[in-house]
What we know:
This protein has 248 residues and is α+β, with helices and mostly antiparallel strands. The chain has one domain (43-247): Lipid/polyisoprenoid-binding, YceI-like (Lipocalin, Beta Barrel), CATH 2.40.128.110. It is 17% helix and 44% strand. Strands 1, 2, 3, 4, 5, 6, 7, 8, 9, 10 and 11 form an eleven-stranded mixed sheet that branches. The two termini are 25 Å apart.
Amino acid sequence: MYIKNIFIFHLAISHFHHFGSLFYYMKHSLLLFTGLLLGTAGAASAQNTAQATTLPPAAHIKPAFNNVKATATFQVEPQVSSVGWIGRKVTGRHNGTVELKEGQLQVHNNQLVGGSFVVDMGTILDEDVEDAETNAKLVTHLKSDDFFGVAQHPTATFVIKSLKYTKVDDSGNNTLIAGVLTIKGKSMGLLFPAKVGIKNGLAAASGSVNVDRTKFDIRYGSNSFFDRLGDKAIDNDFTLNFNIIAKQ
């Protein structure tokens, strides 16, 4: 299925020889485009979300492909990439988005060998609360020191340190990624599966992963640190869904 979808992807982009046309096509067909390249459409479902394995800090994660240097750099296209989040609590859940500021993928022989991403935390949005005033209060709280402390920490980053290509699993993941996630100035290593594809100067990566927020000193509403929260408790884990498009 993966090889078939790569072939379909090749046929699709062969009709777009100029970057202007290609960019227009990508912008208005992101979900389809990513689906063709990776064998998936849209964000991963909850049952396919991977629980990230927490690893030691950056210094203890060995770089990918130690003897191989990247021969190409692909620039992430924030306009056609997406990062979604889901936060859960006893009484329900919230979901929304946050925007990528910039990023790069390091490639050698059409294989991903590294990369880095910068997230603009000031762009946090909630998508499920319809009342404008309540929505604004929620977003303001998420940006406060109780959660992401955006005033002092306007960006978050993820740096790929190591990769391993694997057999395609039931969720379509074909790569195991180890990297360092930094939020609020706290850095932790993460290990999780993802879908990665590179073809004709374009790269795509997508996945869904659960992250323990308390590892980044985000403890508000956590039963692990506060007693008698009852139905005000908020899950330690939040989910990140990502669809990344990059161009050489």
